[in-house]
Structures are given as C-alpha cells and as structure tokens.
Amino acid sequence: MADSERHAGTGRLLTGLAWAVLLLGLWMWGSEVTGGRSGASARAAGDVAAVGRPGDVELPPPAQPLPAALPQRIDIPVLGVQAPVVARGLDGDGAIDPPPFDQAAVVGWYAGGVRPGAAGTALMVGHVDTETRPAVFYKLSTLVPGRTVRVVRDDGKVAEFTVDAVDVVPRDRFDAHRAYGTRRAGRAELRLITCGGIFDRTGHAYTANVIVSAYLTGTSA
Question: Does position 129 have pLDDT exceeding 80, yes or no?
Fold first, then answer.
C-alpha cells in the first residue's frame, strides 16, 4: 500500500494491470463460472499459496442455497467493512470492471455470474487502495477461516457466509478454474477478490491477488 501511495500516478496503472491479469481467465472461461461447475480445490495446487486454511477451526455445515436475489451491501464485521454493492460487467479486456477509483469504498459484483446466496460461485471485487488512501478491501488478506461475511439482498434476506480459505495467487501462475470454480458441488459460494502480494517497482503492479473463499452457512432477516 505504501508503495502506491508514495508513487503518485501509479495507483490506477498498477491496479488496472492486476485486474486485467487476474480476471482475463474469467472472460476465456465464460459459462463455467455461472454454471456452478465443481472445480479442483486450490489447496491441492502448487501455484496457489495459502494464507488462511481451516486447520483446527471447526467450520459449520453448508446451508441450502437461496433463490436468486440482487446483492445490496456486504458486511465483514471483523474488518469493520460495511460497503454498498454495485453490479459490474466486463471491460474491453475481458476483466471485471471494478468500481471507479472515486468510489473506493464500494464493492463490485459480477452481474453476469451467480447472485450471492444462490447455488454456484458469486464473484465480488474491490480495490485494495487508491493513489492516496486504503480502499474497501485493504485488510482483506487478514481474514482467516471461520470468519463471517454477510451479504444483504434485495429480497430482505441476509446471506451469511463462512470463510473457508484465503489464498494469494501469483499473477504469472493464475488458474481461473482453480480460483473461481465451485469448491464443493451444490453449495452457494462467494469469492472476494483484490490485489495482493508485493508491489513490483519494475512492472508497476502487484505480484499477486488475494482471493477469499466462503460458503453459505445461514440466513437472517
């Protein structure tokens, strides 16, 4: 974060590059994201480094998926995050178009995919920083398995997800299916994505991306 703040003018460039590399595979992968296909677990792959693993944490059983509804807000209590959610599509490079930098406290949801709480994998993206300050997902990498993520929906229900993995994915070894594929068939899952790793001064980009995986474990009103 300090690197992007010290190098005025590079924040938009480094974040844009990270989004393009991170999500180019989504454009190529297409319907596999929305179809809820069960993919290989990232923990078995040498190209995905684990930050958070279940370990000794006893995770709750999955809840039954909900009918589709639009997300309105995301809450991550342990991080103090309460952020509005806006629908986003793909940009000209085939990457999810994140919220504008003047909306750094907003989270983008990939509207071409699964709605949070429904069966399959819903994707949300947020900036880690701007040129001058931390952004909505600045502390995302500090999450650990067992933590709760809540998504407020337009049907009046709150989908409650439990984090089961936090991965740092190197940009040069990114595998879209491992990153975005449903970990277990039949579950409602959620991915929260932002930039991570270290700042590469030569390439003017982050070296990796943080991907938080969670699954639906409850519902409240």
Answer: yes
**Which residue shows structure tokens 């980009």?**
205
Mean pLDDT in the chain? 78
CA nearest to 210, candidates 191, 196, 199: 196
Q: How confident is the model at residue 55 (pLDDT cuts 50, 70, 90)?
A: low
CATH of the domain at 180: 2.40.260.10
Cα separation, 138 vs 76, in Å, equals 12
User: pTM (2 decimals)?
Assistant: 0.78
The residues, any chain, with a CB within 8 Å of residue 9's CB and separated by 6 or more, are 131
Amino acid at 10: T
**What is the residue range of 119's domain?**
2-220
CA distances 12 to 16, 89, 132, 182, Å, are 6, 19, 11, 31
Virtual torsion, Cα 199, 201, 205, 211, nearest 10 deg: -20
Provide the number of structural domains found in the chain: 1
Q: What is the pLDDT of residue 208?
A: 85
* Structural tokens at position 114: 């699964």
pLDDT of residue 38: 32
Strands 81-88 and 71-76, by their bridges, are: antiparallel
